[in-house]
Each structure stands twice: as C-alpha cells, then as structure tokens.
Amino acid sequence: MILDEDAKSLGIANNDIKLLEKAVSMLKIGRDKEMAYRLLLRYTKQTFKTDKEWGNWFKKNHKNLYFSEGDGYKFIII
Fold it and tell me: What confidence tens digit (pLDDT) does each residue in 44-72 have?
C-alpha cells in the first residue's frame, strides 16, 4: 500500500469523510487548490472542473457517501 502524501500532510486518513470536506473547504477559500483537486479526483468517481461544482456535489451528497475499498478506494454515493 502506498501512503498518500496529500492526505498525510493534512493529518486526515484517506477513508475519513473529513478528507473530502477539507478538500472542498480548501477550494472554497482558495488554499492549496491543486492538492484539493487531486484529493477529490483520487477519492471520488467525480470529475468536476470548478470549485462550485465540487461544493454543490459535496453539500448534496455528504450524508450518503461511504468509503469503499472494493470500488478502488473511493467514496461512493449510496
């Protein structure tokens, strides 16, 4: 298993929903946007291009997301 240096730098496990929450927050405030996009693309099946799209998606779906190793170590909407 390879350690995710982006998640490690934030001190959040890759299977913790707080990682996505933090990445969306980073986009919103304009902090480390490249890292935020990498994390969101790495741990979801979404491919949004804008901060607003990511924010809307997370707001709508955060209560229905779960981490699945079987689906490629991604958060999946149930």
Answer: 999 999 999 999 999 999 999 999 999 99
Q: Is 77 exposed, middle or buried (CB count within 10 Å of its CB: 0-12, 13-18, 19+)?
A: middle
Is residue 39 within 8 A of residue 23, CB to CB? The reply is yes
SS3 47: coil
* CA proximity to 39, closest of 3, 14, 69: 14
d(CA 1, CA 45): 20
Give 73's Cβ-side CA count (13 Å radius).
10
